[in-house]
Amino acid sequence: MRTFVAALIAAMLVESCATKPPAASTSTATQPSPMSPTQQLVPVPAVVELTANSAFAITSDTIIRVPAGDSRLLAIGRFLADLIGLSASAEPLRAEAETGEAGPGAVHLQIGEVQESGDEAYELTIAPERVTIKGRTAAGVFYGVQTFRQLLPPFIEHEAVRLDKNRPVRAPAGRIVDSPRFEWRGAMLDVARHFLSVDEVKRYIDLMALHKLNRLHLHLADDQGWRIEIKSWPNLTAHGGTTEVGGGPGGFYSQQQYSSLVTYAQERFITIVPEIDMPGHTNAALASYAELNCTGKAPVLYTGIDVGFSALCVDKEITYEFIDDVVREIGAVTPGRYFHVGGDEVKTLTPAQYTQFIERVQTIVQTRGKQMIGWDEIAPAKLLPTSIVQHWRPKTTPKEAVTKGAKVIMSPADRAYLDMKYDTSTPIGLNWAAFIDVRRAYDWDPAAAAEGVPESAILGVEAPLWTETVGNIRDAEFLAFPRLAALAEVAWSRTERRNWDDFKGRLAGQAPRWTALGMNFHRSPDIPWRVHVD
Ligand code: TNX
């Protein structure tokens, strides 16, 4: 009876909300009709059956139930409790041996069979009396929680939210079944050109998690700075970490701080992929250790934005001892399988010198138990079938690498580079590859963009953010959003579910949540942004 009455009230509330006049808009476009629940979802799930006619209401009595003894689901339960403001109540989380039967008002997190394939698939069922979020693995449950989150009112994103009995938080009833198209859904942060603090990187990780991204590639060294402690080569950070583009103070992560990023990311099902760019883009290392230079003389630190002028001395043995130490130390604090060696834009070596270098480094990485990733210039080298090529040069194809058995990450600069300006009026960013408006970031197919390459060779998509013009996380957010959300959908959602006009409407629906999160997103004039949802 209680359930029935609650359901009835919830239904009436949803109904009454839906009949409210649409909110005023900041955009010049006319405000579209009241938002359907599906319009709150980015990336779009595979199967969505939702109704605005009934809802699950979260109150301070709601309980999150997780199977006893499953620490990963318990952690996800805590994440959800924090998010919806349940942490303040006495006992929001209950572990239980049997997840089947429970009273009303519970959100169940479960491991079990779902109708979509793959380890990251999930099923979200919302009924007036209960919510079930089921995944084949914990990752799936986490993604189900993110979808559930997007169906809740945006005000829950405010840090100080407290559940109020008179103001239930409602999720529309229905069912979502979902799984990602690609296993690699990445973002890259260049913390070398401008250093970003641990907290700034955590913020980026949070925003990635909301969009079901699962790889954070950190570009940890370049001409302008070395950003991670290497205990056996301390001058890399003591000297090489002390500046950045424009001459600012730079900075670096101790291995302990880096580990805290790894853990923070892991809790959000994101794998950190460390990159030490070599043999080029190495002025910070060369400035820190004279013996890494062929001349035996250390150059001065560099704070400009030119590329291609530096290279490790590939003919000296100490160079490989250095690389082995770096791969060993970073590898030891990186649980993920990958080590990115850069390999881009080397203008001072012969092709033979370059390929020999990459092949030797590949052996080092393999010996240290990691899989090598490199920018697409590494393709002419003899590659192991486990090596991965990151395609970035728009006018080239990753075919050569694929014929050698390598897999490809798609980051074509004219679609996926978040450091490109949106248009001529964008105050920061570059434009050497293209101006990339939201549609350009969204409206492409990674499989079709890789000429002559079968889809099975494509691991996924990654959106790099180079930081020559990015001074802090506010700038990063401005260039990343909304385009990173567009690229997350390119990576997650299958082609037949993707459509620009539909995406525009769903992207518009993110504005209230992003505003509640305090995000500095670009209010692109192409999107009819919503002001609020209720
Ligand atoms: C090219 S993409 C680079 C970076 C620059 C970027 C600027 C790549 C592998 N190399 O060194 O930061 O362009 O857009």
3D architecture notes:
The protein is an alpha/beta fold and 534 residues long. The protein folds into two domains: 13-178, Chitobiase/beta-hexosaminidase domain 2-like (Chitobiase, domain 2, 2-Layer Sandwich); 184-319 and 337-359 and 368-492, Alpha-Beta Barrel (TIM Barrel). 31% of the residues lie in helices and 18% in strands. The protein has 17 helices and 17 strands. The protein has helices at 2-18, 71-83, 138-151, 198-210, 235-238, 255-266, 283-288, 317-332, 351-367, 399-403, 413-416, 438-442, 446-449, 473-480, 483-492, 500-508, 511-516, and strands spanning 47-58, 63-67, 93-96, 106-111, 122-126, 130-135, 169-178, 184-190, 215-219, 221-222, 225-226, 271-278, 338-342, 371-375, 388-391, 407-410, 458-465. The strands form three sheets. The chain has an eight-stranded parallel β-barrel with strand order 8-9-12-13-14-15-16-17, surrounded by six helices. A seven-stranded mixed beta sheet has the order 1-7-5-6-4-2-3. It has a two-stranded antiparallel sheet with strand order 10-11. Strand 13 (338-342), helix 9 and strand 14 form a beta-alpha-beta unit. The longest helix has 17 residues, at 2-18. The chain starts with a helix and ends in an 18-residue tail after the last helix.
